[in-house]
């Protein structure tokens, strides 16, 4: 397993208070396949907190992905919803958990807030 994925999961508890502000609550099982088998991550989310373990267990949702794709997600080189829509990964169960979890992924390199771009363009028109 890549170090980027390990670091990503290690960072989640510290980042949860900022990202999980709503009433989200549930367990997401993440199954990452590679040439040698499957790595399991169990992510329990609740408002302002997240717990991560390397085990399997009862879950409200399951997300299946290749390790290679997941590494692209955690480094901002791919988008979670787009990967599911392109059938590069699959998801079953409570979709709200997937939508909440994807907020932990970084934005792609070079991405800018559209409001910032609009302000710059408006400034040039003056």
Describe the protein.
The protein has 126 residues and is an alpha+beta fold. 40% of the residues lie in helices and 27% in strands. The protein is built from five helices and five strands. Strands 3-2-1-4-5 form a five-stranded mixed sheet.
Q: What attributes characterize this protein structure?
A:
126 residues; five-stranded mixed β-sheet; 5 strands; alpha+beta; 5 helices; 40% helix
Helix content: 25-40%
- Widest sheet: strand order? 3-2-1-4-5
Radius of gyration: 16 Å
What is the H-and-E element order?
HEEEEHHEHH
Profile the largest sheet: 5 strands, mixed
Average of per-residue pLDDT values: 90
**Total of DSSP H or I helical runs spanning 4+ residues:** 5
Low-confidence stretches: none
Shape: globular
Give the quaternary arrangement of the chains: single chain
Give the CA-CA distance, first to last residue.
52 Å
SSE layout and pairing:
Layout: H1 3-19, E1 26-34, E2 37-46, E3 49-53, E4 61-66, H2 67-74, H3 80-85, E5 90-93, H4 95-101, H5 114-125
In a nutshell, what does this entry contain?
By secondary structure, the chain is an alpha+beta fold. Helices cover 40% and strands 27% of the residues.
């Amino acid at each position: 397993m890549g170090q980027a994925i390990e670091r990503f999961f290690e960072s989640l508890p510290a980042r949860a208070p900022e990202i999980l502000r709503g009433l989200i609550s549930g367990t997401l099982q993440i199954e990452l396949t590679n040439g040698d088998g499957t790595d399991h991550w169990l992510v329990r989310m609740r408002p302002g907190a997240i717990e991560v373990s390397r085990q399997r267990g009862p879950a409200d949702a399951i997300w299946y992905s290749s390790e290679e794709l997941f590494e692209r997600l955690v480094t901002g080189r791919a988008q979670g919803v787009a990967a599911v829509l392109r059938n590069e990964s699959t998801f079953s169960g409570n979709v709200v958990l997937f939508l909440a979890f994807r907020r932990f992924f970084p934005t792609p390199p070079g991405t800018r807030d559209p409001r910032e771009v609009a302000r710059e363009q408006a400034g040039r028109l003056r």
